[in-house]
Structures are given as C-alpha cells and as structure tokens.
Amino acid sequence: MSSVNIARLTDRGVVRIDGADGEKLLQSLVTNEIEGLDAGEARFAGLLSPQGKILFDFFIVRTETGYLLDVATAKTADLVKRLTMYKLRADVAITDVSPSFAVYAVWGDGATTLTATRTCIHFNDPRHPAMGIRWLVQSPPPPDAQVVELAHLDYDALRVRLGVPEGGKDFEFGDAYPHEADFDLFHGVSFTKGCYVGQEIVARMQNKTIVRKRVLKISAAAPLTSGADIRLGEIAIGRVGTVDGLHGLAMVRLDRAVGAQDKNQQLKAGGTAIDLDPEALSRYRTSAAARPSVTLPS
Fold it and tell me: Is the pLDDT of residue 181 over 60?
C-alpha cells in the first residue's frame, strides 16, 4: 500500500495577482522564469533587494485568471506593499487572500493519487521531487480514513532530511543572497532570463564568486537547538536553523568549516559536537579551486 503524508502549513499565506500585466510584472521582478507557465504549473522564486539580498521567497502558481503566491504569512502584507510599489500604472490587482486559503504539503508515494480526489489548486513542489505536492485549499479538505494529518514538525523534518531551506527559519530575510539560501540548488533562480531586481549580483555570484556561506545539513550526537551559534573555538561561524532531533539545517561559513576540517578541529553548536554535510563541503572545495575571489556589497 502506498504511503501519503499531509500537513497543514499554518505559517503560509496566499497573495493573488490578477490583471493583464501580471506576467510582465512578475517576470521583471522575481528570480525565476515566469513567462509561459501553464495553469497549475509553479515556480519557486524570490524577490530581492537591489543589492541582491532575499526579501521574500515564495511559490508562484499559474491559475486560470492570474497567479497565486504561496508565501510566509508573516510576509504577505510586506509583499503586497512591495509589489504595489513596483506596479506603477500596470494593469495588475495585488491582494492578500490568506484568510480564504489553507496551505497543505502532501508527500509520499500516494500523494498524486490523493490529490486526484481533491478539488483545489495544487502543484508539484519545484524544489525537489520528494517534497511532494502543495495544496491551496479554499476550505479544509474532508477527513480521509486513510490519512492522518501530521504536524508542521513532520514537514520540517522532511525539509531537514532533503536539505531544503526556508526563509525566516534557515536564513534571515534581507540578509542572504540566493546562492547562500541554496536557490541555485533547488531551482529558485534562472540564469538565462532577462533582467530582474538584484540580477547583476546573482549573476556575479554564479559566474565569478566563491560562495563562502550557505545553508547545509548538519548532524550531532545530541539533540540540536534552533538558533544556537555554530562555533569554531570561541568564534561563531554559523547558526542553526530548522532542527529535527539530531539533524538540522544551518547557515555556515564554509571557508571556516573547511579550514577546521583540514586542521581536524571540531565544530560545536550549543556545546554539542556537530558534523557538516560532506557533499556541501566538497562542492565548496571544488568552487574555491576553480574561481577567484570577488567582493560583494554588504
């Protein structure tokens, strides 16, 4: 029997974008390719500051009448304000419709079959196949005898296992570049589309820069604590984000971590020894060997 997991994401809201110029507006602003999306197709993307820092991360799904943005509830009002500032005289209506929607994550072998029995806006999570399907439901789904609704913690555990960061939890909005938040690894940025806000910085990081800081997976022999500093001796080189027992995600200075590894020095978080994802460290070593250093604006 196939397995299915469903969790209501109570910290997610929805912003609606309607109007003839909706596609043009989004295409000119966000990090990913929006032109040509079919109804029900989605992209993961961000809206950046002119300095290239992530102000918002969200999913954009095409509907029959426009677009819906699946975004952190705490950021919906700010996102509406920011998009309204950019729209000028464009034929676009931007509305926070969060009270009308519930957002769910559905994953496991039975996710597609279960989704076929529901009437709602849905799309495959574009970041990773194992992240499953997102539902934007205008009323809570009816009970299903074969499905037990899980806590949000179960969804966070899935993200931790797959190494998928989330804004406001694993990196701070306004303080991280897309590469640092792994947008390049989880299909959150297009390197071939036209101009958008912050594109020059993103392109420089992709083509010329050693990305010295990233969100990556960590593990420990004792339970991790979200928000704990990761230390090399007395020096903080990172911070723990989402945790699931002995495993978690953390933003870490990779150059410092690799240096510690080379010297056989142990990193600690909250006094607990931790190990970093070896694949992330290997990718950094490869990048550092191939590219010169370019200084980015703070």
Answer: yes
